Amino acid sequence: MIRAHVGLCTILAAGLVAGCTTRASTVTDTTARPKVFRYAYSPGSEEAETLTLRIDKLKTYLASQLHVEVEMYRTSAGYGPVIEAMRAKKVDGAGIGPFGYLIASEKAGAEVIAMRGTRSGDPGEYGGVIAVGRNSRIKTIEELVAHSKELTFSFVDPASTSGFLVQRAYFQSVGLDPDRDFKKTLFSVNHPASALTLKAGKVDAAAMMEPVPGNIMYKRLFDKGRMNEGDLRILWRSPRLPASPIVVRKDLPEAFKKEIQAAFVNMAERDPELWKIWPRSGGDPTQTKMLPATDAVFDGLRAMARNVKNLSLLEH
After folding, report:
1. Which top CATH class is 128-239?
2. Phi and psi torsions of 212, nearest 5°
3. For the residues 142-157, what does the mean pLDDT come to?
4. Topology annotation, domain 9-119+244-307
5. In which residue ranges of the chain is CATH 3.40.190.10 found?
């Protein structure tokens, strides 16, 4: 873990996409159909075999739907490398968190095209939490705020929605400045790392997506017995948040963007095996699907981000 430092440089200087070449974008004008589609993904916390299987299937699927060569680029941890790679036009599309999308839309010309939702057409949602260890002396969120000077606190990533933004907004609403009012603040890089760090007692409290067995983010921890449901206690839950979207570079040809959107929106029907292993926050994959998405879905989150003090990530 590292000492938390919040700012655009933290995110955009996090590193370039591993394996990206330095060639110019494959798109030289806004009407020519590109010959290559370059998609960035983050390794997250999954088993290597599971991730490799999904990425291989996604590459094959996108190539069959778009009828172009598809290149997959693995990023380092966090959303910063994806944002920077898109800004530099080294990748054309990616899956990214909701807050990461807000940053990418303003700093890297990203456009949202799809997101997980329900079969009835409602956008998908999830939430973030503030948690403590099972044996913590802190019993309520009010106690955590009152004793913050004595506590260490872990966020996930400075571009994380459910592991940073919503918790920071909450702290502001009760007059707590995490950079000043905790004994120490840290970044864990991903949600399972936050959960395990908290369980091990290395921090007193942590922000993360809710750690439940049905969430694919935590599946390996529960399956391998590294975490049980009673290991952490939730002190606070966020309002519901829009699901993570699929984004593309805005300057891609309009017709090509529509093809990419159609490929993701129709994934469940066109490639059921890929859909079964697609990342999700929990629930039955047969009751969810990918939906077309627009920027307006994220207006509420954008308003929240703009109101958080000392968060110089979105233009005003």
Report:
1. alpha beta
2. -120, 150
3. 96
4. D-Maltodextrin-Binding Protein; domain 2 (3.40.190)
5. 9-119+244-307, 128-239
Residue given tokens 């380092």 in the structure block:
76
pTM > 0.85? no
Cα–Cα distance between 185 and 146 in angstroms, integer? 16
Q: What is the CA radius of gyration of the chain?
A: 19
Q: How far apart are CA 310 and CA 249, in angstroms?
A: 28
Give 36-86 pLDDT, tens digit per residue.
Answer: 999 998 766 555 667 788 899 999 999 999 999 999 998 876 678 889 999
Q: Judge whether 256 and 34 are in contact, CB under 8 Å.
A: yes
Cβ–Cβ < 8 Å for 283, 116: no
166-187: pLDDT as tens digits: 999 999 999 999 999 999 999 9
3-state secondary structure 75-89: CCCCCHHHHHHHHCC
Q: 295: which DSSP letter? A: G
Within 8 A by CB and 6+ apart from 19, the residues are 73, 74
